[in-house]
Amino acid sequence: MLRAMLRDLRAHKGRIAMTLIAITLGVAFVVTTWVISDSAAETLRGRDIRGDVAVTVRTVGGGPELTPAERDRLARIPGVASASGVAFGYAGLVGQDGKLTSARPTLAGTGWDSSDRFALVAGRTPAPGEVALHERQAREAGRETGDRTQILLSDGRSVDAVVAGLFTYRPFAETPPSVAFGDPGVLGDRFTRVELVARPGADIDAIAAAARDLVDPALRTVATGADLAAQAQARADDSAQSSRESLLGFAAVALLAGMFVIANTFSMLVTQRTRQLALLRAIGATRRQVRNAVLVEAGVLGWIASTLGVALGIGLGLLGLATTGSDDTNITLSVSPTSILVGYATGVPVTMIAAYASARRAAGVAPVAALRTDGSFAPRSLVARSILGGVAVAAGVVAIVSTLRNDLSTTERIVAMGGGIAVWLGVLFLAPVLANAVLRPVGRVMSRRGGPATRLGVRNSVRDSRRTAATTSALMVGLALVCAFATLGSSITSMLSSSIQATVPAEATVVESPVDNVALGTDVLDKARSVPGVTNASADRYMFVKVTHNGSTSQTTMSAIEPGGVIRPEVVAGTGDVRRGAVVGENQAAMIGARLGDEVTLVLDPTTSVTTTIVGLHKGMEGRPLFYVDLAVMPAKLKATTVTSVYATGPDAAAVRAGIEAAFLDRPDVVVTDRDGVIKEATEGFQLLLSLMYALFGAAIIIAAFGVVNTLALSVMERTREIGVLRAVGASRPLIRRAIRVESVVICAYGGLLGILVGIGFGAVMNHAMMGQSLWEFSVPYEIIGAALIGMVVVGVLAALWPARRASRTDILAAIGTT
Amino acid sequence: MCRGGDCGTVVSVQTSTTPAVHATQLSKVYGSGSSSDVKVIALDDVTVDFPRERFTAIMGPSGSGKSTLLHCLAGLDKPTSGQVYVGGTETSSLSDARLTALRRDRVGFVFQAFNLLPTLTAWENIVLPLDLAGRRPDQAFADRIIDGIGLRHRLGHKPSQLSGGQQQRVACARALITKPEVVFADEPTGALDSKSSADVLGFLRRSVDELGQTVVMVTHEPTAAAYADRVLFFADGRVVGELTEPTADRVLDRMKDLEKVDA
After folding, report:
1. DSSP states of A726-768 as a string?
2. What is the ipTM, given to two decimal places?
């Protein structure tokens, strides 16, 4: 019994090849993810852990730094071989373009020492007057050993230094610094932490205890090197785990697409073998035996595909690491047994689950079917499926409609998202009915217009709407995700742009730091004001703060602006006059439950807060300031030091731009741009993230394309006789090929259109629920949709190549099988 | 280049004296050359004529090569040697594209069963060869054929909604719609009951008498052969006898004789 099935499997290698590819790709994606995240964790583990430090003593956030006297006292603890002070301070590395590199300069400088913090990868140890650079920052700045480079220090000082060497860095918890000065005195004589090295055989815990006795616990934290190493390890594992989780999300989508392909293939294989199955039942096989045989077949297939997928996944993972490895030298390649196990643990069950419905159907074949000449199932009713789909869509629509307002609570947002997902699932269930409803009329029109090949192809594509739907479902899921995120991305981008456009005048010249969210020098605003031709110069002071309203506190952003300055929030309710109080983003106000006239407290830092009244609502946007307040309410000490952007206007915009550019020509810490530049900068990183997502969802679409090939190939086999008749009555080979191609393109275009529509809809819901925008305020990502439509036609044509070739070569005599 | 359905009609010289189909020294050998045990000789040097406007039946025991002969005559199969002329055109040397065009424009087929396209309606099945050629049906002629098969009220139905006999009559109409040189029928009543068989055979008979068609039919039923003008008896790849103006009884007698000779 089992042997009969397995023989059958072997006899139809061609039929299952595409299913095999679908599972293999899905499994490979999972395994690749696992290998890459394992290797990343292993790499961090191998590199970042320092063993040279016994105990560290460091300042508690914001407190006074350690002094040389404290260091010397710590050095005298019994068992301590040496104590070295480690300082971090402002260091702005200036690149070849004369501007700061993207690393935050605040704590980017440190003094060179001989500890295990540094590992030289090029050059030599920096002497006083020289520097060593972190190799990544050096690459960004375009500097090599032997070059001279400018480095900005705090208070506007700067040094020119020779780059003596390049290093990689092992941190305890700090961000790796960009610059290590050969002369530690550059950063002053205070330390962020003191590192104690123990004598061989000394009791580390005793040293730590002694250090604790020496320092004020309110100002200093004492930790052993082992604890810090363990913490660093935990962080490395955490980051590997979270990147693994996000990648596995994409892998799950790919596997889902694979499941549709597998389910469809098995359904067709069972249909084609109806007579054989009936024969087995007629000669005494039980239902259970038939069902299990099909499941075992799926298991074997899953096992073979998983083996291939594991091998491919490991290969791709290692290849991926090897090609991106230039960024971080010495990546540890790690293929854990878990990654292999995970490959099998997904591939085999996924295949068996996908095949289960077909196995049950196979078991239900009546023995008498063996005697019927046309071995096929009666078409299964779509009623139950359609009702389920209809209910899901209706429930989803209700959930979305009931949460149409913009000021949604968190629960309501979740309801709206759930509604979006329900509609999506509902459409998947309704796909066969929709295929009938959409493709039949389209088919009639195309039949009237087109030639016989079009007519035959279109008819065949609607022949079995369940099969068409199953084939297109995988495509639909992949494309819907791409389009949903494209819609969300395009909506966010266009809203960011329009928000910036509404707030910043087109003719304003903008002065910013080259580093994101870093305050400009205290002189920049005054210097801009004094440029001839500038009649109005004002600033944005973008800050991450906490807001307290009705006793609950949450994170937000704010900016203090000059009343009557260049920046004008886009007011939707109340007033935009910050002299009367705060102007708040409407969605932010809704989120904290605040209304016009409510009092809120903005907590700038632990010692500074501002209490104000909400007087206006503006069209808020994540990524832009949510609270606008009057500069006058800011404490004096923060007024000058928090400027993030300066906006200057004047009667002659071009003269203003030229004047400002001239004024800041030799300032590496300042870039001059305009509104378009601000928009570009705000949306750029986002676009990159979206492109990455498209690439990852691409795997699902590739799998879906193989599914189309598979369905077509199996359909062609089922229709051998028909194709033979067609050839006999005078259809040429090219006509047969064209008909198959039309069928393929129709199926792909249907899946594509459905995916695009669902995707745009879901994108709009995401935009509404996640970004707090109105449901209708989404923008359509035309480029992506155009690319998707063209892509679907291309997939359709490519997927038809092999099946069409097969069909056109059908042997007429064998097909009509008259003898 | 000749592509798809765009090929022109294969031109030939025809006179009323040339037979509709003519085969000379036709041989078909299956199995590869050298070893003689695996060789099967299906057609053994067959020379035969099928005159115009006549209904010819080919009879013989199974394995006698009668179906192979039909396939070779119809251009569905290539003979190992010898020539086939359909309306004066030599077919064994034609390219696949020209052969396809010949089948489409000048030959009609009726197979044993299941040879309608399930996605097309009865009417669409009937006009399929014209559709493939990009031609419009001659409405008057189409009406005659449809009235002949008596299925005017069922033209919009799919094959699955028609009985076996109705399907086969649609197939006959499809074979005739192009006014072919010859209609080949391969056991057209093999899967039908006697009433449906009589309908189909009666229609083929009338197409010869009233429409001036030429029909060549392979069958093993003496009652079916009795509808023909002439019966050719086939055995071991050769024509072994002929009967004109057959009746079922005479055909049966002749078959018995052949089997005796055979035994």
Report:
1. HHHTT--HHHHHHHHHHHHHHHHHHHHHHHHHHHHHHHHHHHH
2. 0.78
